[in-house]
Amino acid sequence: MQADRILNMNSDITILGIESSCDDTSAAVIRNGVLLSNVIASQKVHEEYGGVVPELASRAHQQNIVPVIDTALKRAGVSKDRLSAIAFTRGPGLLGSLLVGTSFAKGLALSLHIPLVDVNHLQGHVLAHFVEDGTGRDKPTFPFLCLLVSGGNSQIVLVRAYNDMQIIGQTIDDAAGEAFDKCAKVMGLPYPGGPWIDRLAKEGNPEAFHFAKPQIKGYDYSFSGLKTSFLYTLRDMLNEQGLQTVDELAERVPHLREDLCASLQRTVVDILMKKLRQAAKDLKIDTVAVAGGVSANSALREAFIDYGKRYHAAVFIPPFSFTTDNAAMIAQAGYFKYLDGQYCPLSEVPFAKTKIS
């Protein structure tokens, strides 16, 4: 492996990234730090169940992984024998889904006699800001704070270097994305609920309802109380009207779902930004970024832009293509680790839960 690395240092460094942590199968190719392709296959099968079904997800990954990787290589104009290493998501995520990506990455690396690089999925989201995608967008400078928000995570991460990250705050119960999805389900909206809430919120009044904002010490978050407050608000309205369903209530109350979505979204964003502001002030850091699936939320993106203007901070918001699970971020993280010679033994196994470092 060391001889291969020395040889490749004098030639193009081409990394194939594989992402399979949840319900998106993705493959990307990066050459000398520049993104050449990023292919994502989503799984629609989960919509009728209102959430990701792990067994169905792993089966879909098995069907998708070969065509997705083949397409990524073709779009990049790269043949397998030109790859320098295979980077893959080792965790956290759904174990069955991770096993598909891990097994394929191991087999391909072994057959090509090239190094294997394991990537922490959460670190990948943070490092999505460093993907060179041809747009010329600026990159964060170290150190910076990254608000990492998704369906499973709500964290404030102190990023000192690509391989030096520390979680300084995180949810003690539910994540912001989970709160969106579960409240959307209560309103009868399809899965995933986050995009639906964002869409309807644009037509609603964010001051129509006021929900609980849990007071948690330090930089940690809590969203379980917010979900309960949302549920009780709807329950009380149904009882007052003598109704059984949200659909019936929506017929009587104009713009009900729009106002609920706008108020919920405002509350979640307020909770997220309050902790981030405090952390930036305490640590005297004037560079902040956002990452993860919830970073696609329009209100959160606007809040970051407003934060930058109000506090004269450098703000970094990822392109929409890098907000969801994607292999470009995995290939980027793998590229950094490859340069440092941080390879993964074939004996390593995926993990479902872990911290960011």
Structure overview:
The radius of gyration is 21 Å and the shape is globular. It is an alpha/beta fold. The model is unreliable at 1-10 (pLDDT under 50). It has two domains: 2-135 and 323-339, ATPase, nucleotide binding domain (Nucleotidyltransferase, domain 5, 2-Layer Sandwich); 144-318, 2-Layer Sandwich (Nucleotidyltransferase, domain 5). It has eleven helices and ten strands. The strands form two sheets. The protein has a five-stranded mixed beta sheet with strand order 3-2-1-4-5, with helices on both faces. It starts with a helix and ends in an 18-residue tail after the last helix. Helix 4 (121-127) packs across helix 11 and helix 6 crosses helix 9. Strand 6 and strand 7 (154-161) form a beta hairpin. It has helices at 2-8, 54-76, 95-112, 121-127, 176-186, 193-201, 224-241, 246-252, 256-283, 298-311, 327-339; strands spanning 14-19, 24-31, 34-42, 85-91, 116-120, 144-149, 154-161, 164-170, 287-291, 314-316.
